[in-house]
Specification:
The chain is of the alpha+beta class. The protein has 6 helices and 5 strands; from the N terminus they run ααααααβββββ. It folds into 2 domains: 95 residues, no CATH class; 125 residues, OB fold (Dihydrolipoamide Acetyltransferase, E2P) (Beta Barrel), CATH 2.40.50.
Length: 246
């Protein structure tokens, strides 16, 4: 069943390299880890080529003594059907996954996915250093995830009142404001994706859920001690090439 091991792994390696060459690997993993995935794909392909130098069946020959007794034969006859069934089942499942990967075009995670994972908490791996940096006014490089952390953990909201922002994300419904500007934050890959959102107050109509927008505005501290963004402009845009924050 060499196809199950070498064949499927080789297909996945080729898919990984294809995504890297087309610039779409970032839809699945953090770009900082892309070099590792590409290197492992090359190693897998080299291993696949080397494996075909081994004659079929040789991988199962471990040099066993063929003079084993009848008890061992009986055990093998019982074990072989179970092993075959497990192998065939695993092969069908693995082949199905590979076919699905090949037939499904690369796509970013949806707004519905973000809302289903939204717990109202800031990204788990955001640290206190984000809030400290924000308090100095050095927020030009801040994304939605950074501001979500500040909004959720800042104790002195007045320190951020009036800070200008220009953020990109997609629209989701929110508990405060007219809508939430949301972005998925990834640490390693899409499996650990966490939604982050900030409340937006806008004068115009609210774009539909899932619509990507660029918001230009100002951070405002509310009377009840919350932070929100007073949007001066909400501009509809296409989904960015890199839809995630890291």
């Amino acid at each position: 069943m060499r196809w199950l091991g070498v064949g499927l792994a080789s297909v996945l390696a080729v898919v990984t390299l294809s995504l890297a060459l087309t610039g779409r690997l970032g839809l699945y993993i953090n770009p900082d880890s892309a070099w590792f995935a590409v290197a492992m794909a090359f190693v897998m392909l080299l291993g696949a080529v080397a494996s075909f130098a081994l004659p079929l069946g040789a991988e199962s020959d471990h040099g066993h003594d063929h003079g084993h007794d009848d008890h061992d034969d009986d055990h093998d006859h019982v074990a072989h059907p179970l092993a075959t069934t497990a192998t065939v089942t695993g092969g069908v499942v693995a082949s199905g996954v590979v076919v699905l990967i090949l037939l499904t075009p690369p796509a970013s995670l949806s707004a519905e996915f973000a809302m289903s994972r939204d717990t109202g908490a800031p990204p788990l791996f955001a640290g206190a250093d984000v809030v400290t940096l924000a308090s100095t006014g050095d927020t030009k490089s801040f994304g939605v995830g950074d501001w979500a952390t500040v909004f959720a953990t800042a104790t002195d909201t007045g320190a951020f009142d009036g800070d200008p922002v220009e953020l990109t994300g997609f629209v989701t419904s929110g508990d405060s404001g007219d809508f939430d500007l949301t972005r998925l934050v990834i640490t390693h890959c899409v499996i650990d994706a966490q939604p982050a959102g900030v409340p937006i107050v806008a004068a115009g109509p609210v774009p539909e859920t899932g619509q990507w927008v660029r918001v230009t505005g100002t951070v405002r501290a509310t009377a009840d001690g919350r932070l929100e963004i007073d949007a001066h402009e909400v501009k509809k845009i296409s989904e960015p090439t890199d839809p995630y924050e890291y």
